[in-house]
């Protein structure tokens, strides 16, 4: 069956398209993009009047918790939540149990993805065994097994020589090293308090220097402040292959809006003050911040209904990411919608070396997101499809809502 999406306002940053177009899908692939397409027979019509149509969103930083922590999230629930948020491709971090540190574990995860995921899930392999920073994994074997990048995520690789090897392999294999920037020597001293921002930017500075030394490929996760951004800006000006991401909670929140010691606001790196929030926003405006990534980190209620020191780090963010980005960046900050869409589609596709996604073009996968920009709502975590209801955005008023998500020509989420 052919599918014809008619009368939508198509936003496709890769081709600078922002205009009404009809889109024809055949066999899960985009076959035509024209001002007006007429077909008589054997076609399903989707009327997108009043909606914008974008490439399916891509998130390079999620935690799907499977294997090992299925009480927090599963591949199935996480991808259903992602689809509700408009995402058709996500990359999952390796901090599972067992960690994604072997060919066998990657293979088992891919089997689960094939069985239960409703969208594309790309594993990220661990830099070190069990992400403990003590023994290097076989990076090349992990990539051949299906990993799209390497990272030790929340267990920052503190061994400089290990990072040198990671950057050498990144260049050899043409994949990014994705870094969670946290100096554990500093953060270990702050169990009951919010740790200082030096713990982030000192590791960013180190990783930029090591990336330069080895001519590597570096992607810095969830940047939260000005000093880290200065190091990334200098790296880019120096011609290094360095990119970075910002999460919605870092550009939409600050400690004057939320209690930084509320367990539901506890996230790593922490939400900072107004000046650091402004630095992230201006980094987005200038293009210094390359992409928006959610760091979707679902947790069971019990791990948040406790003291700050005992609470788990993380926010369940994939279902609200576009609404928050549209409300905070486009409506409040007057950053263009096309730029925000680019940061959630073609730019992450480029960083992740992903083929035939992130753009609405002939021959590309029919991964599409249909959005009502006028829809208004209040964020209510009880409605999340994710198992994780942990969000500091409860009660926030937002605009823009995903109405339908199409993955390879199949509707995987529909509000109507």
TrEMBL record:
Sequence positions that bind substrate: 63-65, 95, 268, 299
E.C. number: 3.5.2.3
Entry keyword annotation includes Zinc: yes
Residues annotated for Zn(2+) 2 binding in this entry: 153, 180, 222
Binding annotation for Zn(2+) 1: 61, 63, 153, 295
Associated pathway: Pyrimidine metabolism; UMP biosynthesis via de novo pathway; (S)-dihydroorotate from bicarbonate: step 3/3
Domain Amidohydrolase-related: 52-412
Active site: 295
Pfam families: Amidohydro_1
Cofactor: Zn(2+)
Keyword Hydrolase: yes
EC class name: hydrolase
InterPro entries from the UniProt entry: Amidohydro-rel (IPR006680), DHOase (IPR004722), DHOase/Allantoinase_Hydrolase (IPR050138), Dihydroorotase_CS (IPR002195), Metal-dep_hydrolase_composite (IPR011059), Metal_Hydrolase (IPR032466)
Record keywords, A-Z: Hydrolase, Metal-binding, Pyrimidine biosynthesis, Zinc
Enzymatic reactions: (S)-dihydroorotate + H2O = N-carbamoyl-L-aspartate + H(+)
Cofactor: record remark: Binds 2 Zn(2+) ions per subunit.
PANTHER family documented for this protein: ALLANTOINASE (PTHR43668)
Family: Belongs to the metallo-dependent hydrolases superfamily. DHOase family. Class I DHOase subfamily.
Functional note: Catalyzes the reversible cyclization of carbamoyl aspartate to dihydroorotate.
Protein name per UniProt: Dihydroorotase
Organism: Fusibacter ferrireducens
Origin organism lineage: Bacteria, Bacillati, Bacillota, Clostridia, Eubacteriales
């Amino acid at each position: 069956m052919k599918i014809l999406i008619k009368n939508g306002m198509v936003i496709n940053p890769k081709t600078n398209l922002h205009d009404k177009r009809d889109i024809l899908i055949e066999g899960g692939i985009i076959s035509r993009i024209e001002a007006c397409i007429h077909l008589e027979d054997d076609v399903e019509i989707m009327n997108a009047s009043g909606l914008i149509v974008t490439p399916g969103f891509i998130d390079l930083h999620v935690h799907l918790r499977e294997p090992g922590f299925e009480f927090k999230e599963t591949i199935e629930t996480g991808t259903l939540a992602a689809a509700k948020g408009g995402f058709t491709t996500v990359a999952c971090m390796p901090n599972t149990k067992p960690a994604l540190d072997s060919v066998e574990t990657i293979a088992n995860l891919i089997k689960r993805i094939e069985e239960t995921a409703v969208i594309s899930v790309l594993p990220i392999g661990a830099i070190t065994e069990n992400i403990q920073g003590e023994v290097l994994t076989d990076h090349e074997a992990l990539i051949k097994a299906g990993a799209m990048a390497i990272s030790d995520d929340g267990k920052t690789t503190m061994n400089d020589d290990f990072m040198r090897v990671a950057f050498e392999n990144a260049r050899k294999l043409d994949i990014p090293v994705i870094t969670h920037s946290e100096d554990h020597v500093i953060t270990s001293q702050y169990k009951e308090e919010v740790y200082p921002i030096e713990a982030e930017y000192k590791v960013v500075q180190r990783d930029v220097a090591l990336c330069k030394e080895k001519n590597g490929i570096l992607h810095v996760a969830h940047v939260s402040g000005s000093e880290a951004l200065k190091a990334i800006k200098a790296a880019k000006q120096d011609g290094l292959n360095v990119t970075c991401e910002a999460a919605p909670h870092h550009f939409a929140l600050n400690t004057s809006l939320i209690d930084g010691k509320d367990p539901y606001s506890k996230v790593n790196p922490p939400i900072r003050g107004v000046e650091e929030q402004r630095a992230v926003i201006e980094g987005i405006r200038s293009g210094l911040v390359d992409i928006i990534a959610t760091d979707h980190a679902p947790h069971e209620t019990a791990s948040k209904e406790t003291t700050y020191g005992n609470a788990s780090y993380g926010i369940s963010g994939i279902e609200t990411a576009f609404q928050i980005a549209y409300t905070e960046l486009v409506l409040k900050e007057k950053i263009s919608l096309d730029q925000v869409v680019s940061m959630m589609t073609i730019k992450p596709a480029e960083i992740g070396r992903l083929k035939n996604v992130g753009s609405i073009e002939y021959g590309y996968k029919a991964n599409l997101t249909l959005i009502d920009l006028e829809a208004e709502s209040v964020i209510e975590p009880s409605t999340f499809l994710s198992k994780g209801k942990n969000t500091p955005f409860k009660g926030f008023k937002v605009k823009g809502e995903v109405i339908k998500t199409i993955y390879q020509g199949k509707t995987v989420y529909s509000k109507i």
